[in-house]
Design brief:
Helices cover 70% and strands 0% of the residues. The chain has one domain. By secondary structure, the chain is an all-alpha fold. The radius of gyration is 17 Å and the shape is globular. α2 packs antiparallel against α3 and α6 packs antiparallel against α7. It has eight helices and no strands.
């Protein structure tokens, strides 16, 4: 056994690391903003206008966040009797890396559109996406989590 017993869920599957959950939430940040804006009724439209002045950028980020939300949902449904979900989750590392690379390209394109001018949101997004890509590609725990290694 490579990991402490506390790192496994009640079905014997290795739990996803906290950094993976936080990274997925970062990939789905447009959905988080969208839900928060929907909950705050009066100021929701104003909040979306501040965070996403361009509606196309919101729609693109919502589309790019869907696979991360799908992975979050599927990892919660993982059970020994649900072999199809386990098969889909085996591709989770590749899907996560693909989403990150696509979002990196989108951010680079947005930087290109502003003629390379420095903006803090894009800079922070680039750093976080690069770090998360390295984490997903290099972490053994992430690999083991998606392989479905279990105690049983």
């Amino acid at each position: 056994m490579r990991y402490p017993i506390e790192d496994y869920d009640k079905y014997g599957y290795l739990r996803a690391p906290v950094w993976l959950w936080l990274g997925w939430l970062f990939l789905a940040r447009a959905w988080v903003v969208f839900v928060i804006a929907g909950v705050s009724r009066q100021s929701g439209e104003k909040m979306l206008g501040i965070v996403y002045p361009d509606h196309l950028a919101l729609y693109v980020d919502l589309a790019l966040g869907l696979p991360a939300i799908f992975l979050i949902w599927l990892i919660g449904l993982r059970r020994p009797e649900r072999s199809l979900i386990s098969k889909i989750l085996r591709m989770g590392k590749a899907v996560s890396a693909s989403i990150i690379i696509i979002q990196l390209n989108v951010v680079m394109y947005r930087i290109y559109l502003t003629s390379g001018r420095f903006h803090w949101p894009e800079a922070v997004t680039l750093v976080v996406l690069c770090w998360f890509l390295l984490f997903v590609l290099r972490s053994r725990r992430v690999t083991h989590c998606f392989k479905g290694l279990s105690l049983k």
